[in-house]
Design goal:
The chain is an alpha+beta fold and about 350 residues long. It contains 17 helices and seven strands. The protein binds iron/sulfur cluster (2 copies) and FE2/S2 (inorganic) cluster.
């Protein structure tokens, strides 16, 4: 099964090299690691749920041709080796996000990533596999649908052209660059928890941010970020940012503003954030034991005495500092920074 709108031919315009050099998707080391006449060794995950009990790996050898992309490798296996291989692509030029796969444990767009001498190619994680490297996008799209993906205007549409400045749209512009490739969702470790978390994952949240961070929108998006996105389940590990092939600052420009929005909308459901702010504002420093007591109450000492003891022994918590310690030097400056921040709007 092969889908695609166009294919770069040898005599055609070499969009591959342009992209690789401009965006730095493929490091110079990887680009230099193969030359004409070399062989690319591929271990490809195969799986047809209608036929196979479990995924298995098949090996292929593909002759390298200049500036070969991962997609060219897949094309060779499907067309020249006549394998009945399922893989997905459409634009071929880093626009549609359809061709995302994992190569050697890293999420990439196959149409934009240089081939490597040895490649393990697998489907994205955190999505059901339809066949081989093709994953089912339906759960991702269902999640987006649940988050009211339309603009609910505070003011009626003023007619075309609508006057919007760069400054107006500065908060939402990163989200609008999203290709919906799901690389970030594949990389997110919180989703490894499966049914133990209701976290939407980064890709649906970036789509949601296209409305939530739009200055024209008037819906209570903070509530939706909590109810449908469980945004506070994000642990700010930045794996999604590292994986994003178009360099969207997913955490700093999307998830953190959504968390702030959720906190403003429903502070009672964002206990950890409120407690964190209280501790910093009160002490001018992080105080882990104060944070635990504020979020979980004194009952935590009875509920998990063993864990409390371990934290004490390892010096992770320090009750003396919590109850008798002074605030940090410069606390007045810290409190000045806090003035008005709880009402901050992204
Ligand atoms: S920062 Fe949050 S959304 Fe991104 S990968 Fe980590 S947990 Fe997932
Ligand atoms: S944020 Fe980046 S990685 Fe995530 S879906 Fe959008 S383009 Fe893909
Ligand atoms: S095929 Fe469209 S982004 Fe790769």
């Amino acid at each position: 099964m092969v889908s695609g709108a166009n294919q770069i031919t040898e005599g055609g315009i070499d969009a591959r090299r342009l992209g690789q050099e401009e965006s730095g998707d493929s490091s110079p080391a990887r680009l230099a690691s193969l030359g004409e006449g070399d062989t690319v060794r591929v271990r490809l995950q195969r799986f047809d749920p209608t036929r196979d009990e479990a995924p298995y790996t098949e090996s292929y050898e593909v002759p390298y041709s200049k500036l070969m992309r991962v997609l060219d490798v897949l094309n060779y296996i499907a067309e020249d080796l006549e394998e009945d291989l399922a893989y997905r692509w459409y634009c071929g030029v880093k626009k549609c996000g359809a061709c995302a796969v994992r190569v050697n444990g890293r999420e990439v767009l196959s149409c934009w990533e240089a081939a490597e001498p040895d490649m393990v190619i697998e489907p994205l994680r955190h999505a059901p596999v339809i066949r081989d490297t093709v994953v089912d996008r339906a759960p991702h799209e269902e999640r987006i649908k649940r988050m009211s993906p339309w603009l609910e205007r505070a003011e009626p549409y003023p007619g075309f052209p609508e006057r919007l400045s760069h400054r107006d749209m500065g908060g939402v512009v990163h989200a609008l660059n999203c290709l919906s490739c799901m690389c970030c969702t594949s990389a997110c470790p919180v989703l490894d928890l499966g049914a133990d978390t209701d976290f939407a994952g980064p890709a649906p949240l970036v789509q949601f941010a296209q409305q939530a961070l739009d200055p024209r929108d008037a819906m209570d998006r903070g509530r939706i970020a909590l109810d449908e996105g469980s945004v506070f389940d994000c642990v700010s590990c930045y794996r999604c940012e590292e994986a994003c092939p178009v360099g969207i600052p997913v955490v700093s420009a999307i998830i953190e503003p959504l968390k702030a929005m959720a906190y403003r909308s429903m502070p009672a459901r964002a206990g950890h954030v409120g407690a964190f702010l209280d501790v910093i504002e009160g002490r001018g420093r992080i105080d882990p034991s104060a944070l635990v007591l504020k979020t979980q109450g004194w009952g935590v000492l009875l509920r998990s005495p063993g864990r409390t003891l371990r934290l004490l022994v390892r010096g992770k918590i320090d009750p003396l500092k919590t109850f008798f310690g002074d605030a940090a030097k410069g606390i007045a400056e810290v409190r000045r920074l806090f003035d008005g921040t709880r009402d901050w709007k992204p």
